[in-house]
Q: What sequence folds into this?
């Protein structure tokens, strides 16, 4: 041990460390007052000059950037739906904003629905809205089998209602 | 940059672009295979994004404007993932990377060949070092980290890292016949 409380190995390591700091900063000291092992100096200069740095392919970089963006977007959704920053209410109109030029008799009944409803958009709610929207469209399109089935069911319910009254 | 990403995960992209090559280089030196390095790099950044809320900034105002310990935290994740990958693949790097990976200069073929051979020899010598000695040299010379940063990544004291690097350099010098 030395008077500084460090052994010779630690002092050599400290001298090497200072040399590496200056070498990697682009200012290698030509003449040092500190006795640096010549083999260590040579190999340090060699590694600093010869060890290459690698970069992944552009394709990989952009693909991973996209995945990270998707993951980041998924992390933002829970926040919007009631996470740390509270719920975000998004008004979704349940009727088209303009009258349908191919209007059907069922439009009158649709007019009884509320104009719009505030809905929290999350995965399940959005999915149910999509299903309701698809059923509504099928109802209005007369040609499709689903529309025929929907109209038949509606007419049956209407007749039954009339019989009851 | 880190605070912005914590507030809005979409801002993580800036951190990703800044550290991608460093993490990839580290993974490539450790795994010796581009595909394995890409897989590991992907897991590092996805893991970092998912756990960004756990990151604790340890830089102090005295460390300078914009100082951050984010890189140390990111490389702690990288070290764990890459170490697991090495264990799983049981790749002990006696010949991790060959000199053909070093880009040649098309205008000076002869010098390029010599440079590639020398670089390949240096890379192989580093690859033959044991665990933390190898990691410390890669982080010091390839990623140009300070001793304090390497200490943070490897979970050792700065003094221990200095000794580790000094001994690693003597090993490589002997290996290369310097």
A:
């Amino acid at each position: 041990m030395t008077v500084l409380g460090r052994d010779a190995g630690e002092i050599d390591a400290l001298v090497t460390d200072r040399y590496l700091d200056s070498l990697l900063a682009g200012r290698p000291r030509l003449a040092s007052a500190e006795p640096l092992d010549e083999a260590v100096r040579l190999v340090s200069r060699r590694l600093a000059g010869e060890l290459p740095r690698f970069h992944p392919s552009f394709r990989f970089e952009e693909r991973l950037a996209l995945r990270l963006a998707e993951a980041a977007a998924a992390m933002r959704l829970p926040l919007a739906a009631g996470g740390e920053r509270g719920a975000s209410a998004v008004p979704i109109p349940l009727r088209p904003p303009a009258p349908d030029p191919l209007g059907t008799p069922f439009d009158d009944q649709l007019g009884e629905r509320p104009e719009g409803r505030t809905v929290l958009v999350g995965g399940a709610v959005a999915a149910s809205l999509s299903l309701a929207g698809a059923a509504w469209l099928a109802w209005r399109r007369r040609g499709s089998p689903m529309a025929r089935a929907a109209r038949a069911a509606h007419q049956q319910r209407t007749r039954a209602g009339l019989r009851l009254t | 940059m880190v605070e912005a990403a914590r507030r809005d995960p979409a801002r993580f992209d800036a951190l990703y672009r800044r550290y991608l090559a460093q993490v990839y280089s580290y993974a490539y030196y450790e795994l010796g295979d581009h595909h394995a390095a890409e897989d590991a790099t992907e897991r590092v950044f996805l893991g970092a994004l998912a756990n960004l809320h756990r990151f604790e900034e340890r830089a102090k105002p005295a460390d300078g404007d914009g100082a951050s310990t984010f890189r140390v935290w990111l490389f702690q994740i990288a070290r764990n993932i890459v170490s697991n990958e090495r264990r799983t693949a049981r790749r002990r790097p006696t010949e991790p990377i060959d000199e053909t990976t070093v880009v040649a200069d098309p205008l000076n073929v002869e010098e390029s060949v010599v440079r590639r051979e020398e670089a390949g020899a240096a890379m192989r010598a580093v690859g033959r070092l044991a665990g933390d000695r190898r990691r410390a040299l890669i982080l010091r010379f390839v990623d140009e980290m300070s001793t304090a940063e390497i200490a943070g990544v490897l979970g050792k004291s700065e003094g221990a890292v200095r000794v580790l690097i000094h001994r690693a350099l003597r090993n490589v010098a002997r290996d290369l016949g310097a």
Summary: Residues 24 and 41 of chain B are 6 Å apart (CA to CA). Chain B touches chain A through 52 residues (CB under 8 Å). DSSP finds eight helices and no strands in chain B. Confidence is low (pLDDT under 50) at residues 91-96 of chain B.
